């Protein structure tokens, strides 16, 4: 009887530990960005945070999700990628709003052509391939970032669909996901170097 109770307690404890570990995996990656989000929102300054960090994490996690179609991995890792993508989009939205609120005279830039009739924010019409590479990932509207992410996702998904039977492609996809995420610190390091300061970075 005591052995059964002990085994039951061990089983419950093991399940609880598994849940806690899964939760840590899914949400642990976004925790460092909570104080960064609060700091940007309170100070209304986003200069100290490189939005290219968001680009790196978006690309890495989109590739990781596509990698799962060729090589199965645990569900918490999939949710980690989904949650991270959502977090980076939230960060981009905040940074874009703050930047445009503080730089009212900045020329409006877009990823795609637009038919916006907003008198305050007039964005010149451009064709898909006419956007200025000089201002890549420095656009004036959050929707431009969303369009870029969707375009990348659709192209990457189509290529993955075509080459999913290739073991070499699947392994390369996984490597690119890991390698891209490993380069996460590079854009922030460059941003700090340009600013000659770490002010604004949590």
TrEMBL record:
Stored InterPro entries: PQ-loop_rpt, SLC66/Scramblase_ANY1
Record membrane topology: Multi-pass membrane protein
Segments passing through the bilayer: 12-34, 46-67, 79-100, 145-164
Acetylation recorded as keyword: no
Chief location of this protein within or outside the cell: membrane
Pfam families reported in the protein's UniProt record: PQ-loop
Protein's cellular compartments: Membrane
Keywords, comma-separated and alphabetical: Membrane, Repeat, Transmembrane, Transmembrane helix
Annotated PANTHER family: PQ-LOOP REPEAT-CONTAINING PROTEIN 1-LIKE PROTEIN, SOLUTE CARRIER FAMILY 66 MEMBER 2
Name of the molecule in the record: Solute carrier family 66 member 2
């Amino acid at each position: 009887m005591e052995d059964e109770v002990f085994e039951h307690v061990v089983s419950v404890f093991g399940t609880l530990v598994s849940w806690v570990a899964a939760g840590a995996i899914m949400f642990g990656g976004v925790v460092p960005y909570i104080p960064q989000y609060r700091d940007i929102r309170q100070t209304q300054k986003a200069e100290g945070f490189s939005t290219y960090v968001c680009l790196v994490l978006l690309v890495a996690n989109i590739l990781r999700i596509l990698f799962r179609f060729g090589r199965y991995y645990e569900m918490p890792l999939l949710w980690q990628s989904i949650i991270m993508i959502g977090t980076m989009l939230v960060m981009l939205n905040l940074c874009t709003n703050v930047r445009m609120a503080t730089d009212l005279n900045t020329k409006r830039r877009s990823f795609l052509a637009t038919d916006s009739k907003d008198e305050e924010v007039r964005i010149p019409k451009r064709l898909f391939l006419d956007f200025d590479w000089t201002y890549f990932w420095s656009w004036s509207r959050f929707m431009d970032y969303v369009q870029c992410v969707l375009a990348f996702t659709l192209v990457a998904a189509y290529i993955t669909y075509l080459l999913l039977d290739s073991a070499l492609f699947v392994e390369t996809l996984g490597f690119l996901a890991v390698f891209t995420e490993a380069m996460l610190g590079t854009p922030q390091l460059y941003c700090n170097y340009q600013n000659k300061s770490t002010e604004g970075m949590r």
